[in-house]
Amino acid sequence: MAKFRICIKTHVTAVVDESSNVMECVPRAYEISKNYLQSFHTFDHPLKVSTVTMVDSKGTRVPNLGSNSSSRSSSISLLNDPLLLTLDGTDPLSQFARQEQELIDPLTQMVSEYETFQKSKTKKRDKDINLTDDSFNWNSKRLSILNKFTTSEKLSISTSFLSVSNVGGTGTDGIKVHTVVSDKLKFRLEQLDDFEDASIRHLMDLTQQDYIQRIEQLNQELVQSWHNDQRVKALKIAIQCSKILSDTSVLSFYPSQFVLITDILDIFGKLVYERLKQKANSGPESSRKLNTESARDTCQNWFFKVASIRELLPRLYVEVAILKCYEFLNECSYEDILQRLTLMIRGIGDPLIAAYVRCYLVRIGASVTSTKEYVYNNFKDFLTVYHMIFAGSIRSELNRQRVDMTKYLSLYGPAVNFILQAVAFKNNLYTEEILKQVKTIKNNGPILMAILQAFKPEFVAAHALEIVSLLSQSHTEGISKSQLFRALGLSMSTCAPLCEERSVFLKESFLTINTFTDPSEYITCVETWSQFIANNFPISEVNRLLNEIILRLSSTKICEKHFQQLHNILDKILQHQKNIELLLIQENFLPFLDLFHKDSVKLEACKHILTIYKRNSHEHTTDPVVISALMYIGKILNDSLTALTVADEKRQISQLISNFIRKVYFGRDLECQLSFYVEARGTFSNLDTVYGTLVHNVNKLAMETYNIVQGNHTRKTRAYVKACIAFSFITIPSISCIRQQMNLYLLSGQVALVNQCMGQADACFEAALNLIAELPSVLEIDGKMKSMDSYVVSYLSNMLATIVIVPDSPEQGVLYLLRHLLQVIQKFPFAAHSFGPVTVYLNALDMLYVQSLEDFPYHITGVISNDELYGRDPKFLNEVNNLCVYVVEQILQQLKLLGAAQLYKMQTIFSLELMLRIVRYANLNKEQTFQLAINLWSLARKHESLLDPKHMVSSTVCDES
């Protein structure tokens, strides 16, 4: 190895002494000097399965023994060759074909499986929908009730199953084991009769969380008692839970209390029903009739037990809980039973308690019958006692509990809404009659609210004018008109009235809405109507609405309280306005935006506008008013950025503004297009990404000009293109990222070169090369530190490929840009033992060889490159050869450094690369050049074991050379 190092070192000295004689580029006529391989005709496919014919010892061929013979076949397939495997049916395509013949191809099988999965999924979804329809989506309602109706007051529970010493226990105290059936029945009757008030314990001063935990314990106690064969105890728990619903000492919590208790009753009813069903269907088919009779008798016993409950409320709740069990009593009719229970509810004096009993009856009744007569009767009964809600006794209780009428009326909402939903479910059989009855009722605000929330929007839209009249005339304590009209606006957003009625409907509605003097009531109501207006009315109506809002909320203090409502109005208008550009040019749009006095809220609104514009706008924008409005919005975002703004915020804003800039297009009006970019550069001065977008768009503008004139610039178009290049050249230094500057300089220089602006191209290339020395060796990219060596190598390789066709400047000398590039390589701080410099120098040798050719491999129309400029002038070629000598010298120095660092593998690779270039490019008739190639080859062979064999030429061939 030392010998080869000495040879190279000696050769480097010779290069310095005889620089003009060592490396002389000689263009090769490869098409002439090619040595073609000998060709011959063949009649067999090279991948055809080969066969071997077996010959016996006598020299005769072995006959074919047929497909059944395995040991003496006439031919043996040579399947060990991987290429031959492709023709024996084992390749993927052949497998697919065979599967299609035998069974089914994988794609069809996947489609079949997917269709089966989709059918099962659709079937399950339809089943879920039916279940949801049958229960009127009670699960979602119960969750909303539990979240809405809460309390901070102390609660109490009266029960005999949650003593302090027995909470969470097994609940088996006092339970005796009875083996005789008669004794067991007798004991159960005694248990049911032994329901003394003295045994009930009162748990007082419970928080809401404690109360819920106690209810859950009752639930667990009921289930555990049932599974321990303690049916009477389970019934007593259900009865006591039902009695809890008679407690209205904490009114604000009553709806949640109803949900918690009815959950327990639902479980009790399910346990009873499943038990009876199991009893009726158990055993062999021969005894099925006897089992059915037994289940019928047991069912009657359950209803007899329920009928023996003295108090009305628990008797009603428990019977409704096991209502489904009536199917085991064949002579019973659900319609008659539901009507009977409806009449029984009339005995409950408290209208709130009665309303929720009716709600529970309707919910359970919907699971056993589709008739609606009992539902309608329940609602009529509620209307009959509706006046009691405003009676003096109720008001006294409200005063005692310090609950206002608004809060109290809201307690009726879940129950009344559910009843009305049941009435309107699947058909409008009784809805017309209900609407007529509501007209005659005094203080009908809560019922109108329930109608708007429960009835289908289509029904409300069909009676829009009638309902508006009712809402305008409604005067109910605790229910404001703003609440009613807000509910109407929500319904109208889903389904609008007939086209011919919309204008009258909107006018009549806003005659009342505009009378709201409280800004909170007004803006909350308008928030729901904004979607309806944006969806169904021309832009002029939206503009009028914005003007009304501006007049109402002109005060700064008022606006600060309603930023969320204003943002919701803006969002609904933007989401449902079909032509976003038409909205932007309205005279009241930007003044409406100015209502967002708080900077953070205004910035969110501006970002939202640009986001919607990005998604819903046309491909291009030319309207100057639209552009001006978007520039104003973008400037607000740009001016909000500071040194403390996070990178993600800058990135988001930059993308939105860049999208807007890309959509502005004036067609053939190139002057106007460039003027817009100039204005945008001055407006968005804080965003590097936006500056990059502007440079790209201006370069694109220059290329559009080039395409318009088809490369033949006039005096005017040439001046315009130069102005575009000048714009880019001036804009790029304002970008803080050096890497982005370098990329844009190179791109702008290439655009200038295509447009035959040589001076501008040279300036861009020179500026790009000057930045290499300023580029840090390591940059943080996506949160990780990354070396810039590979980027610099790729960038300079791109630059070398570009400056191949750049003609030399008369003022700068021969191959000025290449000389400059070779200088800046040494200024960049490559990592220790980096392979970057060697790679760039090798690419520079390629570029110098092209410079020695008579015709370059590629040109740009209208640009006279060095091949035409010099015409292989000897002085020019001498300069090229001198640069080749310098580059080879730098490569040899890099090879020496790699050897000193014991990086023998990379030294071998680059030695081989340099040798190949010398063989291809240089004049090997020169003794020193030839000797340098031999030395490099020997150096490469020294460590050829470190390389893949395909990277090395056969040593035998080289030795012969």
Q: Report the uncertain regions.
A: 1-21, 52-89, 120-135, 163-182, 194-198, 954-961
- Overall residue-averaged pLDDT value: 82
Give the biggest beta sheet: 2 strands, antiparallel
Q: Calculate Rg over CA atoms.
A: 45 Å
Tell the overall outline. Answer: elongated
Query: How much helicity do the residues have?
Result: 55-70%
Q: What is the straight-line distance between the termini?
A: 21 Å
Number of H/I helices: 46
What is the strand arrangement across the widest sheet?
1-2
Query: What structural category do the secondary elements indicate?
Result: mainly alpha
The overall strand count is: 6
Beta-strand content bin: under 5%
User: Regarding quaternary structure, how should these chains be classified?
Assistant: single chain
Organism: Glossina brevipalpis
Main location: other
Protein name: VPS35 endosomal protein-sorting factor-like
Subcellular location: Endosome
Structure overview:
- By secondary structure, the protein is mostly helical.
- The chain has 46 helices and six strands.
- A hairpin with a 2-residue loop joins strand 5 (778-781) and strand 6 (784-787).
- Helix content is 65%, strand content 3%.
- Among the domains are: 811-901; 903-960, no CATH class.
- The radius of gyration is 45 Å and the shape is elongated.
